[in-house]
Design goal:
The structure holds two protein chains of two kinds. Helices cover 8% and strands 38% of the residues of chain A. Chain A is mainly β. In chain A, strands 1, 2, 3, 4, 5, 6, 7, 8 and 9 form a nine-stranded mixed β-sheet that branches. In chain A, strand 2 and strand 3 (49-59) form a beta hairpin. Mean pLDDT of chain A is 87; it is low at 193-200. Chain B is 15% helix and 40% strand. Chain B has helices spanning 3-23, 109-113, 166-169, and strands at 35-38, 45-47, 50-65, 68-83, 92-99, 102-105, 130-138, 151-156, 158-159, 174-180, 187-188, 191-192, 197-198. In chain B, the strands form two sheets. In chain B, strands 2, 3, 4, 7, 11, 12 and 13 form a seven-stranded mixed β-sheet that branches. In chain B, strands 1, 5, 6, 8, 9 and 10 form a six-stranded mixed β-sheet that branches. In chain B, strand 2 and strand 3 (50-65) form a beta hairpin. The longest helix of chain B is centred in the first third of the chain and has 21 residues, at 3-23. Chain B is elongated, with a radius of gyration of 22 Å. The model of chain B has no long low-confidence stretch (mean pLDDT 91). The chains are: A mainly beta, B mainly beta. Chain A binds chain B through residues 87-89, 91, 93-97, 116, 118-119, 121-122, 124-125, 127-130, 168-171, and chain B through 68-70, 72, 101-105, 107-109, 112-113, 136-139, 142, 162-168.
Amino acid sequence: MPTKWFAAIGTGLFLAATAAFGSLNTVAAAPPAPLATLGPDTTHTSAQAAITLRSAVLIDKLSATRVFPEEGERLLVVLAEIENLWTAPLELGSGDGIAQAIRLADDERAPGGTVREDDQTDTPLLQPGVPALLAFTWAVPAARYSDGDELTVVLRDPSLITGQLLYTGTSWGNYTPAAEVRVPIRDAGAGTSAATGDGS
Amino acid sequence: MKPAVAWICGVAMIVAAGFVAAATPDGEQRITDAFHTPTTVGRLTESDGLAVRVNDLQLADGLSYGGWRAEGTWLVVALDAWVTRTETGGVLGRAYLTVGERTYLASERPRSYDQAATIDGFGLHVGTPRSGELVFELPAEVTAAPGADHAVLQLSSGTALPGLSPTENQQGAAVIELTVDLTTLPRVDDHALTGATWGTP
């Protein structure tokens, strides 16, 4: 049996298979599917949560949001109602919290602050099946947005990650864009009290 | 010994080992399982350094404490609690309620307004009870949810890490458990929290 041929035959087969699958050329990435576009007050549902964007407000300062603008900055506050559809409390704050589900289309940053609209609890836990109106706040350059502009908010769906080997348990992560919401920006001026910017 | 006898003994031992393996609860998993201690309303129960007496449970459609107020559906649990060995980590920060498949963590909303609003705002003391309440924010239709007639209140000392699931947070913990029938609890329109106070030893 001429076993020394095996290596040559194996290498040949490997090269033939590689060539058949397009050799070592870079695979062209599939163009991302266009995102569904929603209006305000339309609910977007993922396996994790139901998110309904209510409004976007531009305001000079609002300490209840826990975000403090610097010189030349204003606050952009996005009000969204979130209902936890998962079986355990969801956190908002840290790395893979549900605050990651909400992004501005033209801004890479996660929200600088997330508080409940009603009692201003900072980065609250979301209990299963209990909807909560939340204010997501970014400090933005004062000239970037103005009253009546249409703001595009990207809602991102996470996937449930089940730990294997070194990591155990399940958690939400890998947030990827799933829908866009267009909402008009309302300029609330200096603003003092409510996150809705009613000025009352 | 004849070879046949040796073979029979060997096979019998392997079969016996199979039975032992089958009867062993899933190995390492059990090392970190929570240790459950059942309790009932009014009974003093101690488990792994945490002593608890649940005095009263009720549902409320509104909750207030000082200037803080919230609508919603709340389960209010009045209890006395203290620690028996060490005050390190002795806080009722891992209080869960399971209703069917869903698990709720005691709400942080009142105590983020005022730490003294609920019993989990401060650490517990050795031998000196704290009296106070724990509140759970629940969906409006919770009494009609599957499993509402045998919800389980789970209490253990320590602090829950929000990024971990309830099961992970309870790993290796001693958990005092109380079965609650949410469908028969008294329900009030509004409840003013008493705040955490010193209890009677």
